[in-house]
């Protein structure tokens, strides 16, 4: 019975974290509203390269232009989702593991 109680409390914690992330996104998109394509483009670039020395290095590697405030917002969202980690020195690392379904989508995706 104890194991079930522990699973439920962990599930509730994950739900509250997810809700907090959603609230942050909804609040922040009033200022910046990046497209899903932009978000996926940044996420894929970090996923493929695994790390970048700085935000500006990552920003320069983007295949298409993007407003810098939207770029910063995307990085914050990815960090809150525990997909990336931004180090004190500004280095960006991929920390999220892609699910098999996401892995297939990323492999099949085409850059414009």
Using the coordinates shown, work out and report the CATH topology of the largest domain. Arc Repressor Mutant, subunit A
What is the architecture of the largest domain at the second tier of CATH?
A: Orthogonal Bundle
Number of helices: 5
**SSE order:** HHEHHEEH
Strand order of the largest sheet: 1-3-2
Largest sheet: 3 strands, antiparallel
Rounded to an integer, what's the Rg over CA atoms? 16 Å
Strand content: 5-15%
CATH class of the largest domain equals Mainly Alpha
Q: Please indicate the count of domains.
A: 2
Q: Which outline best applies?
A: globular
Q: Looking at this structure, what is the CATH superfamily of the largest domain?
A: Winged helix-like DNA-binding domain superfamily/Winged helix DNA-binding domain
Low-confidence stretches: 1-9
Beta strands, count: 3
Helix content: 55-70%
**Secondary structural class:** mainly alpha
